[in-house]
Design a protein that fits this description.
By secondary structure, the chain is mainly alpha-helical. The protein has four helices and no strands. The chain starts with a helix and ends with a helix.
Length: 81
């Protein structure tokens, strides 16, 4: 299994652990075991940050569609040209 497939961007424990990694340069003790031969760590950073970016965009779009008022329409005078 790829580490990026295991990492869940909707799991707050995983996000907090990633935050620790960003601050300290290391995962929190006990979060992962590099000795586990069943996990593939190749390209993990790119894949995880891509998953986080996609989740962020998904949330922003959901908030915009559900929680935000519709964008104002153009005044009629602009539509006449």
């Amino acid at each position: 299994m790829k580490f990026a497939d295991w990492f869940n961007v909707y799991n707050m424990d995983h996000i907090q652990a990633f935050g620790v990694l960003m601050k300290t340069g290391a995962w929190p003790r006990g979060f992962i075991s590099y000795e586990d031969d069943g996990i593939d760590f190749s390209n993990w950073y790119i894949e995880i940050t891509g998953k986080m970016a996609a989740a962020w965009v998904e949330q922003v779009l959901a908030d915009h569609v559900i929680g935000m008022p519709p964008a104002p329409s153009k005044p009629e005078s602009e539509n006449e040209n």
